Amino acid sequence: RWYDLKAQIPAGLNFSLSGLPYWTTDIGGFAVEPRYERPSQEDLEEWRELNTRWFQFGTFCPIFRVHGQYPYREMFHIAPEDHPAYQSMVAYTKLRYRLMPYIYSLVGMVTYHHYTLMRALVMDFPQDPNVLSIGDQFLFGPFLLVNPVTEYKARSRSVYLPSGANWYDFKTGKYFSGGQTLVAEAPYTDIPIFVKAGAILPCGPEIQYTDEKPADPLRLFVYTGANGSFLLYEDDGTTMEYEKGAYTTIPLIYDEAKKRLTIGERTGKFQGMLEKRTFEIIWITPERPRPLDFDQTPDTCVLYQGEPVHVPVK
Questions:
Q1: Are residues 234 and 277 in the same domain?
Q2: Which residue of 4, 32, 227, 238 has the fewest C-beta atoms within 10 A of its own C-beta?
Q3: Domain residues for 246?
Q4: Whether 155 contacts 183, CB under 8 Å
Q5: What is the pLDDT of residues 240-277, one digit of tens each?
Q6: The domain boundary residue, chosen from 196, 220, 243
């Protein structure tokens, strides 16, 4: 039910606030209403939209999982390829895998710094009293403000942008000041997502499973307007050798005053690590709004071999 989808958001946030970082939901709901098992055309369309909205939300949960009884949950069982439900689920699956360097680094933060991936707004904006009662928005890591849609046929929703930061629309790159409420567009295929100014968002190549290929080139989307930093974490992705110190970190630091990104010195090592790699950098600025588009030509390409590199804004 739509109510069940809506209830998952504060449930996940409360788990995170309780110190449990790895939480998830059964996308689509495990046991469904009988009307969806032998649906009319009207019920079928509602079932498709419910799964789409739940899938969009699930993309930004710590664990991304479709799970349930009949009807079957594979996207090709839910809708045909030319249907917006199918197209949205494919797009969000690809986005999740593109974000793997970001997500895996967050997991490193959980392991070494007691972090949590799905964050109630009060965790990052405790000075803003307006976020205390918000249970249907959250941060995925430090940078992505996620705003699920939980009403049938809704094509917009109210979004509060926390004060203490400014924000970019994920799909358009449009810049917004924090501390305001706006009505954000939410077409069938997308939920509103905003990126915090100062974000350095590392993204990898298109993959269909986590170890299909190395994260090279690594694309950095840098959202200017504030200082920012991120610690890129990597290990062999398979063994427990990270418990013995077999991992690397690369600090990424953006200095707003100097208009400069620093890709810092790599520390650590592990078997199979990339000794050198290419960083592709895309600048998003208030004056130059750009979507998070993996097909656009990068502004700068940098060959990185473990030593610090300074990259000015272009």
A1: yes
A2: 238
A3: 200-312
A4: no
A5: 999 999 999 999 999 999 999 999 999 999 999 999 99
A6: 196
Q: How far is the first Cα of the chain from the last one, in angstroms, to the nearest whole number?
A: 48
**Residue 138 belongs to domain with CATH number:** 2.60.40.1180
Both 298 and 226 in a single domain?
Answer: yes
- 59 residue type, one letter: T
For 196-231, give the DSSP string: ETT-EEEE----SSTTSS---SEEEEEE-SS-EEEE
Q: Does this model's pTM top 0.90?
A: yes
Query: E strands of the chain, at which residues?
Result: 118-119, 138-140, 144-146, 156-161, 167-169, 175-176, 180-185, 193-196, 200-203, 218-223, 228-234, 248-255, 260-263, 267-268, 277-284, 300-304, 309-312
To 5 degrees, how large is the angle CA 173–CA 263–CA 138? 45
Q: Last residue of some domain: 196, 218, 250?
A: 196
In the chain, how many domains are there?
A: 3
In a domain, residue 106? The reply is: no
Task: Supply the DSSP symbol for 98.
Answer: H
The pair of structure tokens assigned to 27 is 């996308």
Joined tokens for residue 306:
């473990």
Same domain, 167 and 258: no
Q: If we measure between CA atoms, which residue out of 144, 106, 93, 148 comes closest to residue 21?
A: 106
